[in-house]
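Per your request, structure below.
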């Protein structure tokens, strides 16, 4: 074991393995992910299924981080088949500003309102 460590230490820096840098999401992106989580929960509740069956936080983060023109091309389960029909389209419309999220004062539930 010590021999392997010595070999590693003897390598020139150029031969060291590349360690990917972890990018911290922008504060705005974190808020957008939170918003999408709330919308996802609303969609899941209306179908009486668990939100985790539709998408995870990492999928929502990928959606938020993608360029608006590239979102539709992403290879995410939430953007395919029944998941897209139940929630994916709504999530995309929220990110595009075509669906507005508000709270219904009577029911205190989220209300999704589509615009053009």
């Amino acid at each position: 074991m010590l021999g392997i460590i010595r070999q590693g230490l003897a390598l020139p820096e150029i031969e060291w393995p590349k360690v990917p840098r972890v990018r911290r999401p922008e504060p705005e992106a974190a808020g957008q992910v939170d918003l999408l989580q709330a919308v996802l929960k609303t969609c899941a509740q209306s179908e009486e299924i668990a939100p985790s069956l539709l998408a995870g936080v990492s999928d929502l983060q990928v959606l938020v981080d993608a360029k608006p023109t590239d979102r539709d091309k992403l290879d995410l389960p939430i953007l395919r088949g029944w998941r897209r029909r139940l929630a994916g389209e709504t999530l995309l419309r929220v990110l595009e500003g075509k669906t507005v999220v508000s709270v219904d004062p009577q029911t205190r539930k989220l209300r999704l309102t589509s615009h053009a």
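DSSP finds four helices and two strands in the chain.

Regards,
D.
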